[in-house]
Amino acid sequence: MYLGPFYFDTKEVFLILASLLLGLAMFFNWPLWWFDKQILLTLAILILITKGLLPSIHNEAFFILAIATIFLSLYLPIFQVVLFYFLSFVFFRVLKVV
Known about the structure:
By secondary structure, the chain is mainly alpha-helical. The chain is built from four helices and two strands. The chain is flat and about 40 Å long.
């Protein structure tokens, strides 16, 4: 989808929509049963930035990394989750997985 000079793929539209819904959940204090809303919003924005900056990413490996990161946010602090995400992403880029 073209919006001015920018091109948004369906994955980016989904991440933008998820970020907006998480922002609304934080504003209206809607409960999310297992997840912390602030951590999920942070992860959605980080995933959106990395997916937007590198459009040539292989979707399958990046999807597995994103799902693993989201589920690690259930048990680990945000710093460790973000560190895992960035280190895994760097290793994936070095090893040419994504």
